[in-house]
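To whoever is on call:

I kicked off a structure prediction for a single chain this morning and the downstream step that reads the tokens threw a length-mismatch warning. I double-checked the sequence; it's 450 residues and nothing unusual in it as far as I can see. Pasting both halves so you can look.
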Amino acid sequence: MAFLVDTNLNSIVPLNNTWSIIASGEQDHTRMRRNLSHAFSDKALRDQETLIQSYVDLLIQRLGEQAAQGKNVDIMRWYNYTTFDVISDLSFGEPLYCLRDSKYHKWVNLTFASVKALGLTAAKAKYPIFAYYDKAKSLFTDTEAPMRARKEFFDLAHDKVERRLEKGAASPRPDFFNAILKNQDAEAKALSRAEMDSNAVLFLVAGSETTATILTGATYLLLKHPAAYANLVHEIRTTFSSHAAITMEAVNKLDYMIACLQEGLRYYPPVPTGFPRVVPAGGGTISGHYIPGGTSVYVSQHATNHSARNFRDPEAYVPERWTGDERYEGDRREVVNPFSFGPRNCLGKKYVFLSPFSFLRPVTVVHSLTHSFTLLRFVSYSPNGRSMANNPNHSLAYAEMRLIMAKLLFNFDLELVHPDHEWTKEQKVFTLWEKPSLMVRLKPVVQPVQ
């Protein structure tokens, strides 16, 4: 029985009425994935390393300048500067110059506003009563501002794609459109012009904000847990003798750092909700429970990761649960899938399934405005009991976050400016987290890269 994508609740709906890979039908999804997967292959990532390294080194340089002036920094903003510059250059062959200018490009602010608008649009599409709420609220505030930002964001993406297409497939920079354009001659892989725009929007959101969210959350959690922070700093500074030695390949040796990031992904998943599917007409049975046709179902990563059925001490940040600590041997670590799994998993994060096993996983079922309940569902996982995120194969998301974290903590000591602030509490979600600033104090420990 096929549970198709719920296009009403799916919040990544492009303005040109052409679906991106994340919400496309099965045939279109297969075709687009054949094309786009080449841009995220191991070879592509190796080709992209020099470009990614240049932006991470620029981040370290600019943070060094801030530290030399005795300035506290909003590390959340600096992570966003970096990830937006990287994904813009990888997508279109040109950065947004956020790191260079030490400020958000207009497009970044439009991205945040657009994501919020997408969440609101999805809610109103599913529950029209919210449209009346908006009309009443508009008497006091401008409720259409996020929608205008969404339109402006999409128009800018279209223009960026247009400029990149003018350069053709012969561009010397190892960006995504090199791979996309090389596949245009094959009918089974070709993307339409509208699909290029829709997927470009997806690249920008999924390849920037989520990675910055992971890094910000992990930084906060580490600084709130001094023992874990000290262990990680020791691992990084005893593994590497120089800044230049920190490469995408070398950071995969940092087992404790990988555990810290993975525990951060469990505790503070970058996409806390899920990707909705629709129960087919006539209804369906999930783990013995009958669900009426038309019901939207999805996996809530945040609920799954904080369930005592899956983890001991679920509200505690414990990297050791990923390093073989016997206290946590009963944890269902395999349920942590921050980038989804199966044929629709994130292209920026590949999973290797060694053989099929099963485990129980909570699924949030949205039935109406007043009813929401949880079921158990069988899915597949790796039999070694380790998360797919520990797969040693390269992926853009993991390579970028590991490289940034390793170079940051090699070069600086960090501490929270407001250690009593509960940063993860009371954050709103509009598809993604609406994050406040995270102010940190930096102390250089080695000469920043020049």
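Update from on-call: the warning came from a stale cache, not from the record. Cleared it. Sanity check on the structure: DSSP finds 14 helices and twelve strands in the chain.
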